[in-house]
Amino acid sequence: MLSDLMRAFGQLSDPAARRVLWQALGLSLLTFGLLWVGATLGLSWLGEGLVGWAQARGWEGFWLETIEWIYAAAAISGVLVTTFLLFPAVAVLMMTLLLDPICEAVERRWYPQLPEGRSQPWREMLWDAARLTGVTVAVNLVALPLYLILLFFPPFNLFVFYGVNGYLLGREYFEVAGVRRLDSGEVRALRRRNRGSVFAAGVIIALLFTVPLVNLVMPIVATAFMVHRFQTLRVRERSGDGGVGL
Question: Could you list the residue ranges that cross the membrane (predicted)?
Fold first, then answer.
């Protein structure tokens, strides 16, 4: 498993991986650019309303300028902080829409003997991305009360967090990697027969997703990692070896 992970990180040197990374970052910047324009217009409108409200109450001179300065500083700080907090999540979501070329690049580099895989149509990729994001958010919201209770009982809170997200990420990325070679039902059956190995790989992915900066490239690394795990488990089943190697 560790060799698969190292090969997955090595995939970042592939031109296809760099292209997906830059495309995702570019789409994220475009998204935030549009949001910044909307936020600027909206905050300007609210600022004018605040100034009008203050002037109606007879505030002028120093006090009016102070209100304007505080509002401007708060608005700019809010936009910058929100951007800082949300940009990695948006970049990861954009990257999730572009994972099929990563699967293709991994197979071309490490498994050249394989026939050409099935290309996912855009509708299916969008659905997979929405499902990955939606299921992860929904399950974590359901588990939130347990997280809060266990917050006072470390490290049990970390075990629950990484356990839940390891299961989710392992399942979803394994299926993303597998649908190029098998239909969805066969991929799920293969995952269930090897649930321990897929879960362990998912926990590793979940751990790395919590590392700053590393999390920006994790959709690429996780996809490459799971392509290797998928191929390893398929070969292992064909050879009749049911062991789980780390």
Answer: 20-46, 69-99, 132-153, 198-227
Please state, in angstroms and rounded to a whole number, the distance separating the CA atoms of residues 14 and 74.
42
**Please, what sign has the CA dihedral across residues 107, 102, 126, 96?**
positive
Query: DSSP labels for 126-156?
Result: HHHHHHHHHHHHHHHHHHHHHHHHHTTSTTH
Please state whether 61 falls in left (phi above 0), alpha (psi between -120 and 50) or beta. Answer: left
Question: Could you tell me how far CA 244 lies from the centroid of its own chain?
Answer: 27
Residue 102 CA to residue 11 CA, distance in Å, equals 9
What's the average pLDDT block by block, 10 residues per block, for the chain (246 residues)? Answer: 91 88 83 83 85 81 83 83 68 71 90 81 71 72 76 78 87 87 85 94 91 85 93 86 48
pTM, whole model, 2 decimals? 0.72
Amino acid at 58: G
Cα–Cα distance between 72 and 61 in angstroms, integer? 17
Closest C-alpha among 180, 221, 215, 222 to residue 198: 222
Provide the pLDDT for residue 125.
Answer: 67
CB 31 within 8 A of CB 90: yes
Q: Render pLDDT for 7-46 as a digit per residue (tens, 0 to 9).
A: 999 998 998 888 888 888 888 888 888 888 888 888 888 8
* C-alpha span between 14 and 228 (Å, rounded): 16
Cβ atoms within 10 A of the Cβ of 186, count?
12
